[in-house]
Structure formats: structure tokens, C-alpha cells
């Protein structure tokens, strides 16, 4: 500054040189010049004191102006950053701008930003400005490691004047090597916050010792807030773009499937119309066949591959089996059948759902039919209960009630006692199983023009006996049918045929008792899940039968031998009787019959061909001997007449 510019002003104008210095934004050192000049010129002490006071005031004004300019620059930088954020297109570009402006405003050698990696549990360098070290730019800091790791862990700003001499944070070889490569000494770090969560750290650093002021820390924190907002905005934009892309794909799917949805709506309308006008399951199958352009059939569960049917029932979806699609028709855990789409291996999701919905409608139709049938079944059960308890003795009334149920009490019937062989330990589960058994038995009785009722923890059925059928045949078929329907073994005991039940209703109770005895015998013999009648138990069947059918037992046991003797005039029966009387010894039998031993052998060989190769086993031999004695009692004049067999006492008749 020249002396001309620093001429002392008149009294009262001591502030003039300082106003000029403020106006041209002179350096701090220039403000000492007016005071020094006044002292050199020997000005009065009062004048020098006034100049000192004016200098201090001018420096305060200068500092205030400089602070305001600095804040204006900071606000301008923050505004520009916010503007960049508002027009965010490239997150990396925005973060680089933030780091560069922070470095410029704080006047540091380096500024950088790190982000947390939740998957690896550490923080890594994302953007740097002023960095020259590749190792530093690739640093990863564990939580709590280094100054940055400490900021990321505690969510608080940290500053160090001399990084390597600061013991507040954990030093690691990797981090220290990177900081040393970069030559950093003083470091300021502030957290990037999204709500209560730290997502990274923003740093400003110098390669010399430096004290960062509170305002500088606040400014860096403001940039950190903008950086966090930029990251959050970028994430939201990414999610929005992803959502928009998803919506576009959804719109494409909707456009592509519009025809299919219309077809599904058509199916719904058709199925609703079918239900309202009382259509059946086969009508549903026909309607779905038209919509799916294929062949859909309703089939019984037994006619469908078990594995695919069980998978469909368990998952509630149509399952592929070969080139077919199978949808289980179920209700309350009970398998009612299946809808099978033939020859359609490739089926889109909407068409598959159409098939599954048709299976649901089919189950509802079957349940509705069953509800109506159950009312009829209760009536059938009441009639059978009356027959079992002999409540009604009026044959005309019994016939009328049976006729309304399409049952003919004049026909030959068999009474069947059925029960589950694997009762559940759960009371509710056992009750449910019994209800399913009764329902299946009632359905069978209705289709066979018979009657069914629940009784004694099981079910009793009265079924007509078809031509050529035996009680055993009916019992075994019924056991298989009921077992398949309830998915667990069912044992069935059958009575001998009964007739004219309207005139003799008491015969039903006696036949039921016989069926129960056969049922118990099957259980004792370990034949669970089987069906049998008294005639299947040999001579034990005489004890099980309600009325001992001695001729029937004799016919089943030795009938072929009796018929052979009657046709041929042979003596096989007499030889057989003597053979057992002689302890099954051919030699002793020869002596008793006074024939050659070869004759005995030939006759016994003929007996074996007539009765079966196992006729001499202990069980069969016992039955044959009993049948011989009963036959001799019925036809005494045809006994063997000689030897021990001729003098044995008659076998007592069973009661």
C-alpha cells in the first residue's frame, strides 16, 4: 500500500482507511498499516487509540463478511447438490459431485465416501476425489476398524488431527497401509443416515496436521445428508423402475391371457347354469371338454392311478400322469372320484385352474346328491332297524315301506355285518371313520336295492342275493368295496340266505347274529379286511350258523364222493369210512373190507382226485370224518356195515 493512500484523515475520520480496506477486500496484514504509519509520524496517543479501535472493528466486520461469503458459497453448493439430486439420473455422478464440492468447500486434499455392505458386514470405498492411491481406493473397513469403521458402527462423526497417533479406534495393517499410501494425516468422518440406520460414511482429509472446525463438520454432515438422500432416491427409483417393469409384464400377461380369461368366464357361467338346472357330474365333464377342447371324464377313484390321484388330493391341484391330467374330486378328506383330461400333456395355468374348478363343482354336486341320498339312507336304515328289532309284524306295511325304497323283501337276501379293522385311537377320528363306513354302506345298499344301518359300532347291510352268487361272494365283494371307499380295511361276515322277510322279520335278527359270529371268527383267525360266511369255516361253520345246515356241510365236505358212488355204484364212501376207522392204515383197511390192498389204494387215489390232494391233512381229515358220521346218521342204511366203522356210536348232533 502507498503512503498516499494512508495519509491520516482529519479528526473524526479514523475509520476512513479501514472502510477503504474493507471495500477492496484487503488482506488481514493490510489492516496494521494505518496504525503503524500513525506511530511513525508521531501522531498523538489519542489518535493512535482511535485507529486501534477502528482496526478491531474493521477486522470484525471483515471476518463477518468473510463468514457470510463462506456460508453463501456453502449454501450455493448445497443448493446445487440438491438440484442435482432433484434431477437424479446417475447415482455415481451425484455422489461424485457431492464429494468434489465437499473437498472444495472444506479446502481438503482428499474427500471420499464409503457405503456399508450388509451381506459382508463391512464398509467399502464407493467414490473418491483427490485420491492418488489405488490401494486406498479399494479399501474395505470392518465395523469398528479405522476411523471410518468406528463412524459406521457408532453413527457419530469423528475427527482426528493425526490419524496414526490417535488410539481411539482400531488400527489394522490393511487400513493403515492404505492411509499411509495416500499420505493422509487429518481426517474428518460423518455418517450417512437413512432414518436410524447408517448406510455409509463421508470423509474429508488432509495430508498435513489440521484442526477441523465445528462449522466444517456441520457442513460435511449436510453433504452427507444429501448423499444419503441421493442413495435413497436412487433406490426408490430402482424399485419404481422394477415395479413398472413388473406392471408392464403383468399387462402383457393380461393381454395375452384375455382370451383365456374369457374362456374361463364362459366355463364359470356354464357350470353355474348346470348346477342351477340340476345337471350331473357327466354334464360338468362334457361342458369342460368343450372349453378345454379335449376329452374330460369323471371316473371312480379305483379306475385312476393311485399315486397321481393321491398327489392331486394332497396338493389340491391337477396332476400330470403321462399325457393325461388328473384332478381329484374330494370333500372333507373323502375321495369321491376324479376328473381326467385325456391326451393333454401341455396345459397352461388358466386351463389347469379351469379343470380344478370343475373338480370342485363336481364335488359340490356329489355332496348335494349325497345329502339327498342320506335322507333316503336314513329311511332305509329305519326300515332295517325295524326288521332287526322285529318292531313291525304287519307284512303288508313292511312290503309297502320296502317298495317305496325299491327293495323287494320277497327276494333272497343275505345279512352282512361289517366293521373297521383299524379303529383310530382318537375318539373323534374313530367317529368320523364310522360315519364314512355307514355312508359308503348306505350308498352300496341304495345302488343294490338293499338296506343299511349303523349298529354295534359297525354297519349291517341287507343285500339281495343275485343268481349264481353265494353269501361268501357277496361278503368278499362288499369288504373290498367298503375298504376302497373308506381307505382302510373293512371285515364283513355274512349270514346264510334268508327269504320272505315281510312274513318272517325275526329271521333278519337271527341272520345278523350269524353274520356277527362270522365277523368275530374272521378277527380271531387274523383275516382282517376279508369277507366270509359260515360255510367257509368247515365244521366250525356248523357252530357259527344260526341254523346248523348239516346237509350243506356234508355236501361241501364229501358230496363229490357221495355223488360218485351213486352214479357208479362204487364203495368209495364205505372204503373211506373204514380207512379212518382203521387209523388211516391201508393194510388194516384191506382186512376190514376183505379186498386186495391195491384195491384200497386205487379207491383212496380216486377219493383224492374227488376231494383234493390235501384231504388227508389233519384239519381236512377231521372235517371228512365228521361229515361221514353225519351222513351215516342221515342215511343209516348206507353205512359201511362192517368192522369198527359199523359199530361206532352216532356222532351227537350240534345244538
UniProtKB/TrEMBL annotation:
InterPro entries associated with the record: CdaR-like_regulators, CdaR_GGDEF, GAF, GAF-like_dom_sf, PucR_C-HTH_dom, PucR_C-HTH_sf
Name of this protein: Diguanylate phosphodiesterase
Species for this entry: Streptomyces pluripotens
Domain GAF residues, every copy: 90-241
SMART domains: GAF (SM00065)
Stretches that traverse the bilayer: none
Domain of life: Bacteria
Family the UniProt entry places it in: Belongs to the CdaR family.
Record-linked Pfam families: GAF (PF01590), GGDEF_2 (PF17853), HTH_30 (PF13556)
